[in-house]
Specification:
Elements lengths: L2 E8 L9 E7 L4 E5 L6 H8 L7 E6 L7 H6 E4 L11 H11 L4 H14 L15 H14 L4 E5 L7 H14 L4 E5 L3 H5 L4 E6 L2 E7 H5 L11 H10 L6
Parallel strand pairs: 3-7, 3-8, 5-6, 6-7
Antiparallel strand pairs: 1-2, 1-4, 8-9
Helix pairs in contact: 3-4, 3-5, 4-5
Bound molecules: adenosine-5'-triphosphate.
Adenosine-5'-triphosphate binds next to helix 1.
Protein name: ATP-binding cassette domain-containing protein
Pfam family, one: ABC_tran
GO molecular function: ATP binding; ATP hydrolysis activity
């Protein structure tokens, strides 16, 4: 059961051209990285997929779940760019609260919050107030909120932005460990960091899918002679054109 967008169109302002126009996209299995320049429409696409925005036209489907229904929202977890901590709640309370909001019983949510925090390696911080966690830890709490209600699709908007290299490593390992259980779509500007580890790479530009396919097929766009370790950047630049011309 894969998330599927068909002829999806969305614009923030009626009189302006849409930001996303007639977009067809099927989220593959595993870990997919969503790349694209500023303003390409990555966040908008993730919000539409999460049913946080209502499309102007087109459809979003996930099996037979009704788009935007409580069961759809339980199956699809979305982590926006900025996670606001609820200062008075501990990490465990926060994760359990999200589970409860998604329709779980209090006791279930509480028990699974513990497990979800262990999965993101934050069991030892479960009793810490969210306001005292670092940005990277807060994003791992965000992933735990998806695991608590056993989402099938995880939509992550620039989760590694602002993380130091060690935090990024922890986060990459976490996504790699989850890729067999959930379909993950993660937007990022860390081209080199995430793209080479992904199963699939999708490049969005001007609200259109410029490329989608396996990581190997993406990396093949790198010009011949690209230095080892620069393949992802080379492929990205080749697909989008030289930044000096942008
Ligand atoms: N709330 C909003 N109101 C009006 N226009 C918006 C709004 N949010 C986004 N846009 C516009 O929609 C377009 C796509 O924005 P979006 O945030 O989806 O791009 P993005 O690829 O995620 O960019 P970035 O990499 O900078 O986060 C941009 O032109 C942006 O200015």
């Amino acid at each position: 059961m894969n998330l599927e967008l068909s002829a999806l169109t969305y614009g923030y302002r009626r009189r302006r051209p849409p930001v996303i126009e007639k977009l067809d996209y099927r989220l593959p299995d595993g870990l997919t990285v969503l790349l694209g320049p500023n303003g390409a429409g990555k966040s908008t696409l993730l919000k539409l997929a999460a049913s946080a925005l209502a499309p102007r036209a087109g459809t979003v489907s996930l099996g037979d779940l009704a788009y935007g229904s409580p069961s759809y929202r339980r199956a699809v977890a979305w982590m926006p760019q900025a996670i606001t901590p609820l200062p008075s709640l501990t990490a465990r309370e926060y994760v359990a609260y999200v589970g409860w909001l998604k329709g779980m019983s209090r006791s279930d949510a509480w028990a699974r919050a513990e497990r979800a925090l262990a999965r993101v390696e934050l069991a030892d911080r479960a009793g810490e107030r969210t306001s005292r966690l670092s940005g990277g830890q807060l994003r791992r709490v965000g992933v735990a909120t998806a695991l608590v209600h056993e989402a099938r699709v995880l939509l992550l908007d620039e989760p590694t932005a602002g993380m130091d290299p060690r935090q990024r490593r922890v986060f990459r390992d976490l996504l790699a460990a989850l890729r067999d259980e959930v379909h993950i779509l993660v937007s990022t500007h860390d081209v080199a960091d995430l793209a080479e580890e992904a199963d699939q790479v999708t490049v969005l530009d001007g609200g259109r899918v410029l490329h989608t396919g396996t990581t190997d097929s993406f990396l093949r766009h790198a010009p011949a002679g690209t230095a080892p370790g620069r393949a992802a950047e080379g492929a990205y630049t080749a697909l989008l054109g030289d930044p000096a011309d942008a």
